[in-house]
Amino acid sequence: MKTMRFKLQGMSFPGRRWLMGCLIISSFTIVAGWGVADYLGAKARREIIKESHATTMLLAARLTYEVKKMEGVVKSLSLSPWIAPALTAPTKENIERANSTLDRYNEALSASVTYLLDKTGRAVASSNRREADSFVGKGYQFRPYFTEALRGHGGHYFALGVTSLQRGLFASCPVTGPANTPVGVMVMKTDLDQLQTQFRHQSYCFFVSPQGIIFLSGKAGMLLKSLWPLQPGERNKLIGSRQFGNGPFEVLLPREVTDGMEVRLEGKWYLASRREVDREGWSIVILAPQGRIAIYESIGVILTVVVLLLLIIPISLAYHTMKSAEVLRRSEERFQQVGENSQEWIWEVDRRGRYVYSSQAVRSILGYELAEVIGKLHWEFFDPEEKERIVQEMRGYFDRKETFFRIACKHLHRNGHQVFLECTGAPLFDAQGEVAGYWGANRDITERKRAEEEAEKIREKYKTFFETSRDCVFITSTDGRWIDFNEAAVVLFGYQDGEELRTTRIANFYENGQDRQNHVAIIKEKGFSQDYRVNLRKKDGSIINALITAVPKKDQDGAIIGYQGVIKDLTNETMLQERLFRAEKMEALGMLAGGVAHDLNNVLGILIGYSELLFDKIEASNPARSHALHIKQAGERAAAIVQDLLTLARRGVPVVEVYNLNRVVEDYQKTLVFERLLSSHPGVKVETCLDPELFNIEGSHVHLGQTLMNLVSNVAEAMPRGGVLTVKTENRYLDRPVTGYDEVREGDYVVLSVSDTGDGIAPTDLKHIFEPFYTRKVMGKSGTGLGLSVVWGTVKDHRGYINVETEEGKGTIFSLYFPITRKQVAENQVSSSVLEYMGNGQTILVVDDVEAQRELADRMLTKLNYRVRSASGGEAAVEYLKTQAVDLIVLDMIMAPGMDGLDTYIKILQIHPGQKAIIVSGFAETGRVQKAQELGAGGYLKKPYSLEKLGMAVKKEILSTKHTKEH
């Protein structure tokens, strides 16, 4: 310092001034240099923040789009007509329909899993139900998306899957029932693998929860760590919700990140940029390296040094300014070139919505010149039909400063036709953070939109035919796998659900495997098949006769990739034709047998008469006497055969006597024929099960006994190795026809059934068993071959029906249906206690959908001194009781169409609380009968009923003092 001071003191004034000038210039230069360095550092900082903001905006827009798409899909799915019934009426059919709907949506959206929760949070249906980690039966009531949706809010939820432990986006929506109240929650989960790749372009780019948990990241090692410290109590709360697993949530930064903050991570400094994605507080965080700031500041230092050394600070500054301007110009040129060459309409509007920039694509899309667009309001180009809706929607985005993504808008072309555009836009902010305008891009989707509308019309037509057709409509692959089919296919082949049918190969349905090969060959040769007749096998092994009409399904190159068509079931038609043919054949054989029997009777009369005369004239010691006896016995056996032929011909079978089949069975068991049967078949055990309250029938005791004898004999001979022969009688009411070997019409019947435990009857023999002389036994050894033919003829003479149930190796059941009669066997058998259940003029309403049943009940109750009113159904009964009152209702449980007995009784109780009623039905007592009795209905009476049973049930209920329960 002393030396320097000495030199300055010895220096001349100009030198000192020069030195002072240099010092001043140097000081100013250094100050200016530091200013330039600070300016360049701030510029680098702004560029980093701007780039980070652009990246966070695009990522936020992408996440927002995924969220909105998922929420929209789940809302649409919750309104499907197949979803709510799975919660309100969870039958197996409704659950299956819901599962099929979930499968279609899950596949269309490429989602991870779609599932339906009931009000308790338990999954009742799921697209992953066939997987090892199926959701079905598991509870998710602890998930916030469930509790919020059950309150009617719905929304989205980012979390780890409880079962899969995979990160996903969950979207939920309430499912409402008939009263518009939530009955469950619809949930769809999609994996975020594609979004994960968007974060790999930045060193440190995170999708962070409100608590700071990293959910998506460019670095896999940082997933599920905490970017900043958790608040007290939040760790346990997160672990309890299982949203991000069990931790440990390692903390990376000392405090919560804010936009523009400088943070130090892994030994380096970064500049933070943060943008919130939704109202929940989820945000995109980018930690951008600050290397550029150091570089820019270094440039300032270098420039300062250069100026000090070379005194070219003005030149350097000018050069730097020129280079910056050139970079900006080139950047603007590149942006303009991209905009002008893009097929999308790139645009920018100010905060008022006026266009300040438009790319050339507006000419090809809307037909306007640039001068006609710039300065115009953006909604001036909307279609007037949707202008108000779109303007309101756009204003919402402007007010919320939100990015909108792929909004479909209708615009008008300059020549007047509609143009569909897909619009995407993001806000532009000024230095104060206020929205200065919007920029974006519009894509012309007119052709796609029209194609989608046309395709939707075609799909609707196809869907209507596909779902409502009673025939099986199918699509199969070339290798014999089901691709798609309607509900009629499941019913046709006798499967419980579509999934079970789908796993069965097509070839397994053909009775003859060669039929499928021939069918495919015909389709390939002709290009189609029409009414291809084939026998197909159902799940239970039964065979159906069907017609198949099919065409090949081809790809774009014309190659066959499958087959589609319709299968029509002809089984019922074939059975009706067979029954008609059988009846005509039996009628023809009967006529033939009657003619033959008539002629044989004349011959046998002479044969038996003369043999008797001859027998009486020959001495007992004469050997010829035994010959005459053999002739007489042979004639009598021939006469018995003639009697069978007459029965087959339906001649002379009087149906005038009233008999009880129990008596016919008991009388047969006392005959020598029955004893010989037991002795000749020692391995056969005979059991009887006779209904003690069996109704009577009208018929011939002799012919009915002969029928029972023939039937028991045939059944016994069907068990050469022994077994159990069961004879059973019962009352049976049919409210609809029963289709089997014979078609049994609805009505009241007494049923006589004879069953065995033998080998059963082969299908090839079953259709012939009632034909005369058709037998597998040795003719003349076991019978005449007319036994079952006589059974057929006798049953038909008694206006009855026959049904045969058989299975090879498991035995056969013959069931004979005879119409009942209300007549008594004898007057002295009528109950002497009828006075016990006589009425006293009370009014009774009979409700039954069958007119004959109403008339029968009317006559019986009138005979018992009651006043009777009748209604043909539940609706008519309710209307009648709105203005009238009755003492008792006789209510049929099964009525169609319309309300059944339970629903009718509930409506009646609303009008007349405590109304007395008894329930009648042709079916066994069901849960709905018991429910009606819980509500106050009295006894249950099974059809067909007798006068005594009806009278006792009515009298008992009228005298009762109980009251109906609250319902």
Description:
This protein is α+β, with helices and mostly antiparallel strands. It is built from 28 helices and 34 strands. The strands form 8 sheets. Strands 2-1-5-4-3 form a 5-stranded antiparallel sheet, with helices on both faces. The longest helix has 66 residues, at 13-78. Mean pLDDT is 78; it is low at 1-8, 315-325, 650-655, 778-785 and 827-832.
Describe the secondary-structure layout.
Elements: H1 2-10, H2 13-78, H3 85-88, H4 92-109, E1 113-118, E2 123-126, H5 144-150, E3 155-160, E4 167-176, E5 182-191, H6 193-198, E6 204-208, E7 214-217, H7 234-241, E8 262-265, E9 268-276, E10 283-289, H8 291-310, H9 313-341, E11 345-350, E12 355-358, H10 361-366, H11 370-373, H12 387-400, E13 404-412, E14 418-429, E15 435-444, H13 446-468, E16 472-477, E17 482-485, H14 487-492, H15 498-502, H16 513-526, E18 529-537, E19 543-554, E20 560-569, H17 571-617, H18 624-648, E21 657-659, H19 661-669, H20 672-680, E22 684-690, E23 697-699, H21 701-717, E24 723-734, E25 738-739, E26 743-744, E27 747-755, H22 763-766, H23 787-797, E28 801-807, E29 811-819, E30 843-847, H24 851-863, E31 867-871, H25 874-881, E32 888-892, H26 901-911, E33 917-921, H27 927-935, E34 940-942, H28 947-959
Parallel strand pairs: 22-24, 30-31, 30-32, 32-33, 33-34
Antiparallel strand pairs: 1-2, 1-5, 3-4, 4-5, 6-7, 6-10, 8-9, 9-10, 11-12, 11-15, 13-14, 14-15, 16-17, 16-20, 18-19, 19-20, 21-23, 24-27, 25-26, 27-29, 28-29
